[in-house]
Amino acid sequence: MAPVEWTSADLVFSRQLDSDHRKLFEQLEKVRLAVECAAPANQLNFRLWRLSKDLSIHFNSEERLMRDSRYPARRWHERQHDAGRHKMARLMEAAHSRVGLNAAFEEFTGWMKDHVRLADRMFAAHLRNDQRERLAS
Fold first, then answer.
1. What is the per-residue burial (b if ≥16 Cβ within 10 Å, else e) of 22-52?
2. Which domain holds residue 111?
3. What CATH number does the domain containing 92 carry?
4. Is residue 127 part of a domain?
5. In angstroms, what CA-CA distances link 14 with 10, 35, 56, 64, 69?
6. Which residues are within 8 A (CB) of 70 and not within 5 positions of it... i.e. 6 or more apart?
7. What is the pLDDT of residue 131?
8. What is the mean pLDDT of each run of 10 residues along the chain (137 residues)?
9. How many other CB atoms are found less than 10 A from the CB of residue 123?
């Protein structure tokens, strides 16, 4: 598995979202290392729990921002989050059995990168426009 790194290609140009994403990518890399090193189950499960917790906090925060800013694509974006939650659950399930773990990890990581680079970038653009409108009025 390739290392998981947050890079400038993952910028959405929102200080809070970029900070959250960087943290999530760091947690993903810790999970990858635990999988690659065949860490004991309790260590891997702890890493996955942390990632899942941070992901949930991020999604909840982002969904609150979407409601507050009246984001027109909110429902679509929330469905994307639901897909991410589902992939996270499959990753945690695969970790318990160690069957399909690499594939579940790659699937979640691919989803995360795609989500940040498309859905979150669209939302961040909306947030910037919303802030400009509020300043102008």
1. ebbbebbbbbbbbbeeebeeeebeebbeebb
2. 13-136
3. 1.20.120.50
4. yes
5. 11, 31, 19, 15, 14
6. 130
7. 87
8. 96 97 98 96 97 98 97 98 98 92 97 98 96 84
9. 22
Q: Tokens in use for 126?
A: 């909306």
- Residue 8 makes CB contacts below 8 A (sequence gap 6+) with none
Least Cα distance to 83 among 108, 60, 62 occurs for 108
Q: Is 70 helix (H, G, I), strand (E, B) or coil?
A: coil
Q: In angstroms, rounded to a whole number, what is the distance separating the alpha carbons of residues 23 and 96?
A: 24
Give how far Cα 15 sits from Cα of 20, 101, 120, 127, Å: 9, 32, 12, 11
Neighbour count for residue 2 (Cβ, 10 Å): 7
What is the C-alpha separation between 112 and 28, in angstroms, rounded?
10
What is the tally of structural domains in the chain? Answer: 1
Whose tokens are 């891997």? That residue is 44
Residue 2 domain-assigned? no
